[in-house]
From TrEMBL:
Belongs to the fasciclin-like AGP family. The lineage of its organism: Eukaryota, Viridiplantae, Streptophyta, Embryophyta, Tracheophyta. It holds the Pfam family Fasciclin. It is a lipid-anchor; GPI-anchor. PANTHER family: FASCICLIN-LIKE ARABINOGALACTAN PROTEIN (PTHR32382), MUCIN-1-LIKE (PTHR32382:SF78). This is FAS1 domain-containing protein.
Length: 449
C-alpha cells in the first residue's frame, strides 16, 4: 500500500513524461518514400533505384511532390544503362507538384501542362508535358515515348506527396540513344550530372540548373558555402534593399525563409517598396510571402525556361496560407526579358539581376523591377477591383507572350483544389492538441490527489 501511495503521488509527473513521449514520436515521424513503396513488391526495383541514387532523400526532405512509379517489368528497360543515365531517369519521374489520379484527370483537355522535375538540366529534359484526353499521357519535353497513368498508389495529403503508377519508364530520346556499359545495378554514389549543378553536397534539394547561357546580371552574385542561411544578413550587404529586409523581419517571413531550402526570393529596391508602406502588417506579410518562390532559380535558369510559355510557380504564400484561386502563385515568362506577374493579376515586373546565390541550401535572391501586388490581396473591401496600388518603378514595355499558361491548369480546374496546408503546420497543430490533452489529464490527476 505504501508503494502504491508513492506511485499515486507521482502520477502527474508520469503524465507529463508521457506528454513529452508522445510529442517526441509525433515530431520524429516523417514521410519515407522507401517505406511507402516497400508495401508494394511490384515496385521493388524502382524503390531500389530511389535508394541507390539517393533520390529518396530529396523526396523525403521536401513537400508538394508527385512520384511516377514504374513496376519491375517496365524497369527492365534500364538494364545496361550507365549510372549517370539511371540517376537522371529516376529524377525525371519526380516532379514538383502534388497530383493524384483525379487531379490529373481534372486538367484542361485543350492544352498541355508542363511540370518541373528533380532533374538538374539546362534544357527541356527537366520538364514533363502532361496531356489530358481519353487517358492521361505524359512525355518528356525533350522528346520520349508516351506513357500513361495507371493508378494511384499512395496519395498523402498530410505530406502533400503523391505516388502514381505510370505504364512505362519515361526515357528522353537524348538519354536512350547513348546507353553506356555499367554494372547491373547502380552504385550507392551516383555520378553527378554533366550539366551544371548548383551544389556538390550529398542528397541536395531539387533545383533548376544554372546553364551557361548569357545572363543580364551585371556582376557575379556572392555565393555562400557554409554557416546557416540568414536572408537579412544577405540583404544587409545592399542598402537598396533595407526596407524589404526590414519588412521581412517585422512580418517574420525572414524566419520562414531561413528555416527552409530550395527557394528564390524576389526583392525590390527601397523606391519600389513605397506602395506597401501604408499597408497593414498582415498585408505586408502576404505580399512578401508571394515574393518567395518554392523553387531555386537564378537569372540564367529563368532564361532556360521554355520561351513564349507562362510557367506557374508555387510561392511561400500558397504553402503557408492556402489562399483561394490563384493568389498563391506567380507566372514567369521567358522572352526578350523575364517577365513576372502574380497569377491572380498584378502589374508586370521584370527580372533585373542576381543579388545572391547560396548554393548550399539552393536559395537565390533575384531583384525584380517592382512589387507584385494582386488587387484581390491588397484591397480593404470585397470589391478589390479599384484598389491596386501603383508601383513607382515601371517594368519595361515587353509584354507577356500569348502562349497558353500551362502552369495555371490546376488552379483553373474546379475539382483541383489548391494544395492543403503545409505538413509542418499540421504537425504543430497536432502537437498543440496533444499538449492540451495531456496537460488536462495531468491537472485532473492532481485534483484527484
Amino acid at each position: 500500500m505504501y508503494l502504491l501511495g508513492r506511485f499515486k503521488f507521482s502520477t502527474p509527473i508520469t503524465y507529463l513524461l508521457l506528454s513529452f513521449f508522445f510529442l517526441f514520436f509525433s515530431a520524429s515521424s516523417a514521410y519515407n518514400i522507401t517505406d511507402v513503396l516497400s508495401k508494394y513488391p511490384d515496385f521493388s526495383t524502382f524503390n531500389d533505384y530511389l535508394t541507390k541514387t539517393r533520390v529518396c532523400n530529396q523526396i523525403n526532405e521536401h513537400r508538394i511532390l508527385t512520384v511516377l512509379a514504374v513496376n519491375n517489368v517496365a524497369m527492365s528497360s534500364l538494364d545496361g544503362k550507365s549510372v549517370d543515365v539511371i540517376n537522371k531517369v529516376i529524377r525525371i519521374h519526380v516532379f514538383l507538384d502534388y497530383l493524384t489520379l483525379n487531379r490529373f484527370k481534372s486538367l484542361p483537355t485543350s492544352q498541355t501542362t508542363q511540370v518541373t522535375t528533380l532533374l538538374e538540366s539546362p534544357d527541356q529534359q527537366r520538364y514533363l508535358n502532361i496531356t489530358n484526353g481519353d487517358s492521361v499521357s505524359i512525355v518528356s519535353a525533350a522528346g520520349s515515348a508516351k506513357v500513361e497513368l495507371v493508378r494511384d498508389i499512395s496519395p498523402d495529403e498530410i505530406y502533400m506527396t503523391s505516388v502514381v503508377q505510370v505504364s512505362n519508364v519515361i526515357m528522353p530520346s537524348s538519354l536512350s540513344i547513348s546507353p553506356l556499359p555499367s554494372p547491373s545495378s547502380p552504385s550507392p554514389s551516383p555520378s553527378p550530372s554533366p550539366s551544371p549543378s548548383p551544389s556538390s553536397s550529398p542528397s541536395p534539394s531539387p533545383s533548376p540548373s544554372s546553364a551557361p547561357s548569357p545572363s543580364p546580371s551585371r556582376s557575379p552574385p556572392p555565393s555562400s558555402s557554409s554557416g546557416p542561411y540568414d536572408i537579412t544578413n544577405v540583404l544587409n550587404d545592399n542598402s537598396n534593399f533595407n526596407l524589404f529586409s526590414t519588412y521581412l523581419t517585422q512580418t517574420q517571413v525572414a524566419n520562414q525563409i531561413n528555416e527552409r531550402k530550395t527557394m528564390t526570393i524576389f526583392v525590390v529596391n527601397n523606391g519600389a517598396m513605397a506602395s506597401l508602406v501604408d499597408k497593414p502588417m498582415e498585408i505586408k506579410r502576404k505580399v512578401l510571402s508571394l515574393h518567395v518562390l518554392m523553387d531555386y532559380y537564378t537569372v540564367q535558369s529563368f532564361h532556360n525556361l521554355p520561351s513564349a510559355q507562362s510557367i506557374r510557380i508555387n510561392t511561400l504564400y500558397q504553402v503557408t496560407d492556402n489562399p483561394s484561386g490563384q493568389l498563391g502563385f506567380v507566372n514567369v515568362t521567358n522572352g526578350n526579358s523575364i517577365s513576372v506577374v502574380a497569377a491572380a493579376g498584378s502589374d508586370q515586373a521584370t527580372v533585373v539581376r542576381d543579388v545572391s546565390d547560396y548554393k548550399t541550401n539552393y536559395i537565390s535572391v533575384v531583384q525584380i523591377s517592382n512589387l507584385l501586388l494582386p488587387s484581390e490581396l491588397t484591397a480593404p473591401s470585397s470589391n478589390p477591383g479599384k484598389s491596386r496600388s501603383a508601383t513607382p518603378v515601371k517594368a519595361p514595355s515587353s509584354s507577356i507572350a500569348a502562349a497558353p499558361k500551362l502552369g495555371d491548369a490546376l488552379a483553373r480546374s474546379p475539382t483541383a483544389a489548391a494544395p492543403a496546408p503545409h505538413s509542418s503546420a499540421r504537425a504543430s497543430t497536432n502537437s498543440l492538441i496533444t499538449i492540451i490533452f495531456v496537460s488536462a489529464l495531468s491537472l485532473t490527476s492532481v485534483m484527484l490527489i
